[in-house]
Amino acid sequence: SLEERKKYDYEFATSTSFHGVHNIVRTKSKMRKALWMLVVMGSIVLVAWQICNRFINYFSWPTTTSVVVQYVEKIEFPAVTFCNLNRFQTEAVANLSIIFFLWSIVSGVLHMFDIGEKFGQELHYFLRGNQNFSIKEFTRNNGFFLNNNTLLNCEYFGKPCYPKDFEHVFTEYGNCFTFNHINIPAKRRVTVSGRGLSLLFDVKQSMFTDDPTLGFVDAGITFAIHSPKAPPRFDGLGVSTPVGMHAHAAIQQVKTIVQEHPWGQCNPNIKLKHHESYSTYGCLQECKAQHILQQCGCLPFLLPGNGPECDLEKFYNCVSPTLYNMEIMGSCSVGTYNSTCPVPCEETDYPTTISYSTFASEKSLKFLSTKLKKSSDYIRNNLVYIDIKYHDLNYKMTKQQKALSVSELLADVGGQLGLFCGASMITIIEIVEYVFTNFCWMCVFLLLKAPEMPNWNASDQNQQSHKRRIQEC
Predict the structure, then answer these.
(1) What does pTM read for this prediction?
(2) Element (H, E) at 127
(3) Where does the sequence pass through the membrane (predicted)?
């Protein structure tokens, strides 16, 4: 009945934990009733506005970045890949000047190179006379090599190391060699700062050469410091050391942690097939390899994967145009979450500070000349000394964090409700129960007051019985 409904509304208003409502009901003064109603409605508007702002802020996915320097007793030593700036043996390329252009076509899979049309005819003549020529085997056999003649001295943390401790890899510099590669049986760790890897190279300028038209006009060693689980990258990250110099490389380990989408731009679900850890550069390599394998039916040896090796003709006629189309179409994009290769969720870099000193001094030249049986001019023009060590036994962690979690959002919303309305979760349940009860009463009221539907089947039966009576009569 209407009286019972009014009684229920009155009991709810006087017993609810929503502050201010009972003052509206119990107050007999119309002015105070209107004042309390204005206060309650204003509080509801304010709390609704504050809660909307909180949800808008949360769904903008805000983040904060923290930088922490962690000191440790032991720290892992990175992998270091060394290459000679002069890639090929002089005798091997003396009568084969096209080899530099051929290698530029091959290394274009790592670093974009504009081939041009003028070399097409020259390449055609070369391939016609050298059908079984393999640029991979030629580079392996006639490129830079690492043995006791080119690696004169190697020490890691006071212990000797040898050429067999280096793993051969192909890069845009041809034959390169990685120390502390991923296949080593035990991880190398550093326990004292200021010591690490010391190497003395002999670049043998008279024995190795390169084409100055391609930009390689220096003599020395270039090296890249990277994680043992990631491939070496020289494009923009290689450190070059000229001959006659002693390079002091002080490294620091920096770990970067990025939040996954939508807070950050990383995608933790992406895994690489041929690299243990995810990196943008490794992802780009696998993306290029996949497209080239689909379009050309072969795989460049500089890219990871399993497939038939591309010959020079396919490099020129298929691989290079495919790479160009990929650049135009953006098939292998990087950076954002929606790109082919987003940023890694966790990455380890090794920022390097380089300083140089002349190698060697006037007095030490006499000692080295006697020991190596080389002239002073030869030492100044061919030897490169490199020291790689940790600056301190610590690592810097740059971590991207969620600025607002779900629990903090709920606490903020609850604080606004409590501040303006004195409400809590119990209050919300009370209001939901009140609304639901009134809704049920409304449904029952409508069902009771609904007009009765005529029984059309009964009227049809009456008409049929009436017709039978008429027929009987």
Answers:
(1) 0.78
(2) helix 120-129
(3) 34-51
